[in-house]
Amino acid sequence: MSEKTFQGKAALVTGAGVGIGFEIARRLCAQGASVALNDADTAQAHTSARRLQKEGGTCTAVGGDVAEASVVASLVDETVKAFGKIDFAVANAGLTLYGDFFDYAVKDFDRVMGVNLRGSFFLAQAAARQMRSQGKGGRILLLSSVTGHLAIRFLAAYGMSKGAIEMLARGLVPELSPFGITINAIAPGATVTPRNLVDDPNYEAAWSRVTPLGRPASMEDIASAALFFLSPAASHITGQSLVVDGGWTSIGAAPRVPRGGEQKKKE
After folding, report:
1. pTM for this structure?
2. What distance in Å separates the CA atoms of residue 184 and residue 238, rounded to the nearest whole number?
C-alpha cells in the first residue's frame, strides 16, 4: 500500500484510545484517512486524537460506551458531521471478563455481550445504513479473537462473544453486498499491548514460549491485517475471518491466565 492509500476516506474506529485500536487509527491517519477515534474514556479519546493530530493526521475524538446502541448511532453521526461521510467502520472496542463458569455473574455476562456483541452489531447497522444512503459502498471490519476458535479456561463468555462476531461477519454478507459494503473479521491471538504488559509484565515472554513463530503479535501485526481488509486490495473479499496468531491455533497451548476483574480489550 502507498503512503496515501486512504486519501479522502473517512473512518470510525471504536475502542481506539490505546492498543490495537489506536494503532489502526494511527496507520489510517498516516495513509491519508480522516479518522473519528472513539474510546469509552472520553478524556483518553481526546488525548489520543491530539497525539495523531500532532503527527499530522486528521483525527477527531468521539467518546462513548459502545454497549449503548444510541451511543453507537451517535458515533456514526459525529463521524459524518466531521468528515461529511463514513467509508470505514472498525468495531475494535471490546472487553475481557475472566471468570469461573460455575460462579460467573449475570452482570458480567451482560457486560461482555453488551460491549462485544451489541456494540459490534449496532455499529455495523448504523454504519451500513449511512453507507447505503451514500450509495458508494463501504467497509466494515469486526475484531474477533482466537478464543472464538479454541477454548481458554475462564474465558467461556468472552470466547462465545467472539465466535458470534465471526458469524455476524458471514451472516451480513447477503444483506450488505447489494450495496457494495464488505464486512470481514480479524481474530488476533496474543498481542503485546500496553495494557497487557501492565496486567502481566511477563506477558510477552510467556506467550513467546507457546507461539510457533516464537513471539506474540505486535499491535502493528494486527493493524497491518486491518488495513489490508480496508484497502482496495481486499475489494472482493467479504464474510471472511482472518486469524493473526503466529500459528498458535494450530497448537493451542496457553500459559496460565488470570482470574477475575474487568479488563479492557486484549486483542
Report:
1. 0.93
2. 6
50-61, pLDDT tens digit by residue? 999 999 999 999
For residues 81-85, give the mean pLDDT.
Answer: 98
Give the domain ranges of the chain.
Answer: 10-264
Residues 10-264, CATH architecture:
3-Layer(aba) Sandwich (3.40)
Instruction: Please report the pLDDT score of residue 267 as a whole number.
Output: 38
User: What are the DSSP E strand ranges found in the chain?
Assistant: 10-13, 34-39, 58-63, 88-91, 95-97, 138-143, 181-188, 191-192, 217-218, 241-244, 262-264
Torsion, Cα 188 190 195 196, to 10 degrees, reads: 170
Residues marked as catalytic: 158, 162
- 56 secondary structure, DSSP code: T
